[in-house]
Design goal:
mainly alpha, Hydantoin permease, 2 strands
Length: about 550
Amino acid sequence: MQSVMIVILGLAGMSFGWLVYSKFIASKIYQLDPDFVTPAHEFNDGVDFVPTNKFVLWGHHFTSIAGAAPIVGPAIAVYWGWVPAVLWVTFGTVFFAGVHDFGAIWASARNQGKSIGALSEAVIGKRTRSLFMIVIFLVLLMVNAVFGVVIASLFVNTSTAVFPAWSAIAVALVIGQLIHRNHKLTVLSIVGVAALYVSIYIGSVLPIELPEQMFGLAANANWLIILFAYAAIASMLPVWMLLQPRDYINGLQLCIGLVLLYGAVFLSLPDISAPAFNDRVGADSPSLVPLLFVTIACGAVSGFHGIVSSGTTSKQLDKETDARFVGYLGAVGEGTLALITIVAVSGVALAATPEIWHEIYDQYGEAGATTFVQGGAELIRAGWGIPISVTTTLLATMVVLFAATTMDTGVRLQRYIIQEWGEIYNIAALKNNIVATLIAVTCCLFLAFGAGGATGSGGLVIWPLFGSTNQILAGLTLLVISVMLIKAGRPARYTLVPMVFVMITSSWAALLKLIEWYQAGNWLLVAIDLVVLTTSVLVILESISVISQYRRDNAVSETG
């Protein structure tokens, strides 16, 4: 019964955010204009700049930002107890993530669809753009490595998810062609989702496994290589061909999955096995503050969202007023996924007693996507009576598809950055789609295998660094939006306050991990952490200088 109260209070808070707070931000702060000509219309090229129905665009945006992070992060963070996790997810979604994602789409759309890195040059200065792009590239590198490892692990541990995960690509390609030919979206939605669920049922009785050893590598390492080969191809296709329809169908699938999960809570009324605050954490475990705020990144606030918002979403915005629906509601959708993840890994569906729960959560970082799949599958079985083999396949496929769509988008965005570097430094080879994509994928594989060895598990090794770097980028994105608002003469406290909080907690966490990795002699992670921290400080100093100069100029003009 405790889980019902968690769900009601969490959803009530997010409903307030969508129905009240986002309207205030849209009308008073960002001041959306329905007549503004968006970059999708101004630069329509049929590849990257494509005016898109807001429901389809929401599907792309939602599934691109969601990935596995709003599942992995909360599933790990419950280690400190369910109360801190629920509070951060709820307040983070309403006052941090929604404003951040919505603002990044608006700011980019107002500046010809520029990425947040390019936008920082226009808003703050040329040096800032170079610094910003380094942080963005590192975040994308870590996102792709992390999610690649998560998918490969799920393919090995839940082989029934393999068939539906790859079938979803074929479904999306067909749906994409039909949408492009203006077939009715409602009919295509029903057909696409039905085909996906048929493949899930087939997958539940048709597991597909790779050999334990092939080409001298373990199964998960081979899956990792296959996944990045796919992501390389997918990232070069026009967005309407695979990215949009796949993300849209996956978005619908997630909505159905959320209905099943939330419905199961109200049908089975499960209790919570996890403690409200865990007083049995290990002596060597990280402290709740500040690590909670970087462990739960996506699901509360995430710098990766700003990259997606300004990298692909803003280029497909049909009307500026759609930014609220796509950006803020996308963040709310991710918040609901994080909330139900907390319930799934805290309740009796996963652990019948508190003692069993403590055995599962014996150490920080041991839980993750697999824990969610196990707890969520049992929750749906208890509530709806669906066989456990089907529910396990359903949730494993859901996680795989979200992580895969994030990889598709992430590799595409890495390509954009490499090509931007080609333009900045006039290196012809870097401007080439194929060359830029190969560099992006090679860097991801190098990190996955370089940090994790022959197993390719480097994505999990760098998770704490991903969390702090990702949150630092969120703070920097809010800083750029704040400077833009100040220059426009609008209130900036609604973005500045979240920015200050995020920068303090994420920098604190990054410093703690820097000390830990230095003492352990993990020089790769030390180097990346130092680059991110140094770059962030320089961007903040540049921004303070620009704001001070702007205010001085305004004061002179008013007195003159």
